[in-house]
Write a structure and sequence with these properties.
Elements lengths: L1 H14 L11 H28 L1 H25 L2 H28 L6 H13 L1 H12 L10 H19 L23 H11 L3 H12 L3 H13 L2 H28 L5 H34 L16 H28 L3 H27 L4 H26 L7 H9 L1
GO cellular component, one term: membrane
Main location: membrane
Protein name: Major facilitator superfamily domain-containing protein
Length: 426
């Protein structure tokens, strides 16, 4: 699962991770990402049922193939400059994102024992986040000019090849019923129970107090993507510096995922609630520090050089590049923590395997809604300053709500089973 995620995400990093999909104008990339966000949000409402109906293997084949079509649309665009296929396949990729998120998250939550969940989450995100290094190296290898602002065609072909490899690996997935946990217990399978029951469970997720409290956090958990890529990265750095920033971002993300997993599994002196609050506080501090720093840097830099142009983009060889690259290292560390931590919280707050897929689809809906709203702001040419401030405020609100979830729903191992059952019903 992690290797499939590596290939699909590496293709994304190689093309869209450099900002603007490597094109001179970032508008098409923003429109394609907006289509993907809307589709993944709507798809998240039914992704749980669809994943159960198709099964793990077929769901992952379909999801990976959507990435192949999306990358192929950029190859087509290079020859005929037709934007419609890019936007349409962007929507297909959004549906694939929803399926991928549900299937991979369910397997990460159901396959390990409770004591191993932090380790499995961190290992998955470690491998998955190495995609940023792979994608960044592809961008850097084929676009090493110090003045280039667009990607070469070879980059798009390479990205398409990676997604084709992910389809091949999806074909090789073994059925979940053949797997056992480390303690020899069978993996809890997600059984398709009919569309009426699946729809009822999906609707029920919207009435869960736990998920309602988590909604603002998931709304914020991908909001930052538009600002980081199409605003900060695209407007300040040239192509090869963006590739370097992606590599640093991914390296930092891999390291933080391992540290998070180790802390969540081995901080035996801390209760689950204390561990959750410590991580929430860490996220809050890094969010405030990094976005405040980014705002100060971009305002000072743009005030110094005036209107941005191709010749004024920052190159990795310049001393001024150190500041944005350090900011990207912090954002990379945040990325894996922000996205793996709520899964750990969710596994502690609910023990109902059949509801997990629908809970994840619900979370994907809000995550995609936030991402879509952020891409709308970017498409509307909202200023870098305003995008930064909106991202900061949304992130802080999300942190506040997950702190409430941790305080209210996470129980210590000594808490009696009756209280735990009451929490799960909520």
């Amino acid at each position: 699962m992690a290797l499939i995620s590596l290939c699909t995400n590496a293709s994304w990093y190689a093309v869209l991770g450099v900002g603007g999909a490597g094109l001179m104008d970032s508008t098409l990339a923003a429109q394609a990402n907006l289509a993907a966000a809307i589709a993944s949000g709507l798809g998240g409402l039914v992704a749980g049922g669809v994943a159960k109906y198709l099964g793990v293997r077929c769901a992952m084949i379909a999801a990976s193939a959507s990435y192949t079509l999306f990358m192929g649309s950029f190859v087509l665009y290079a020859y005929c400059a037709e934007p419609i296929p890019v936007i349409l396949t962007g929507a297909l990729r959004g549906l694939g994102m929803a399926l991928t998120f549900v299937v991979q998250s369910v397997m990460m939550m159901q396959y390990p024992t409770v004591a191993q969940q932090g380790r499995y989450l961190s290992t998955f995100f470690f491998i998955s986040q190495s995609s940023g290094i792979v994608g960044g190296l592809i961008s850097l290898a084929f676009n090493s000019s110090d003045v280039a602002r667009t990607l070469g065609l070879t980059t798009y072909y390479s990205a398409m090849g990676l997604t084709a490899l992910s389809v091949g690996m999806a074909v090789l997935l073994v059925p979940p019923h053949t797997l056992t946990r480390a303690d020899d217990t069978p993996v809890a399978l997600l059984q398709f129970t009919g569309w009426s029951k699946e729809v009822t469970r999906s609707v029920g997720s919207f009435c869960s107090p736990l998920l309602l409290f988590l909604a603002p956090y998931f709304l914020a958990s991908r909001w930052y993507t538009a600002y980081q890529l199409n605003s900060f990265n695209f407007n300040l750095l040239n192509i090869r510096t963006r590739a370097v920033s992606n590599i640093l971002y991914a390296t930092s993300s891999m390291a933080s995922s391992l540290l998070l997993g180790y802390y969540l599994d081995h901080a035996k002196g801390h209760s689950q609630r204390v561990r959750g609050l410590v991580v929430t506080g860490l996220i809050t501090g890094l969010v405030v520090g990094s976005y405040t720093g980014a705002l100060v840097f971009q305002e000072q830099f743009l005030a110094t050089i005036g209107a941005t142009s191709e010749t004024q983009l920052i190159d990795v060889t310049q001393p001024v590049a150190a500041a944005p690259l350090i900011i990207y290292v912090i954002w990379g560390a945040l990325d894996s923590v922000v996205n793996s931590f709520p899964l750990w919280v969710l596994t502690r707050a609910t023990r109902q395997p059949q509801a997990v897929a629908h809970h994840l689809g619900y979370c994907m809906f809000y995550q995609s809604a936030g991402l879509a709203a952020a891409w709308v702001l970017d498409s509307a040419r909202v200023s870098m300053r305003d995008q930064n401030l909106v991202t900061l405020v949304v992130s802080l609100v999300g942190c506040g709500f997950i702190a409430v979830v941790v305080q209210r729903y996470l129980v210590s191992p000594t808490t009696d089973q009756a209280k735990r059952n009451n929490m799960e019903k909520a």
